[in-house]
Amino acid sequence: LMRTYAASHGQTILKLRLPAALPFIFNGLKINTTLALIGAIVAEFFGTPIVGMGFRISTEVGRMSIDMVWAEIAVAALAGSVFYGVMALIERACTFWHPSFRT
């Protein structure tokens, strides 16, 4: 149909293919933002000199300070939920036309 109206390749991508792909792109972004946080924390477990959440968790486990370990885990869970929620809000703003967001 786009070729019938003499749309260029760029117009076809911007007006047809990209909007159709946006729900899938945002699903990937929502999943990967939380997995990136988990990956960063796990990478910090393995002896990085950077003082991050993973470093603090491994240090507090060595000190037997379990309450601080659970506090760091709770903060990490909250941060992951916030990242997911922000991506969901951006998705809702960008793909308001998609049938999954209609009420």
Structure characterization notes:
The two termini are 29 Å apart. The chain contains 3 helices and no strands. It has a domain of 54 residues. The model has no long low-confidence stretch (mean pLDDT 87). The chain is mainly alpha-helical and 103 residues long. The longest helix is centred in the first third of the chain and has 37 residues. The chain is elongated and about 70 Å long.
- Please give the largest β-sheet: none
Distance between the termini: 29 Å
- Class based on secondary structure composition and strand pairing: mainly alpha
Q: Which word captures the global form?
A: elongated
Mean pLDDT across all amino acids:
87
The low-confidence parts are none
Measured as a percent range, the helix fraction is over 70%
Order of helices and strands: HHH
The total count of helices amounts to 3
Radius of gyration: 21 Å
Q: How many runs of DSSP E, i.e. beta strands? A: 0
Query: How much β-strand is present in the residues?
Result: under 5%
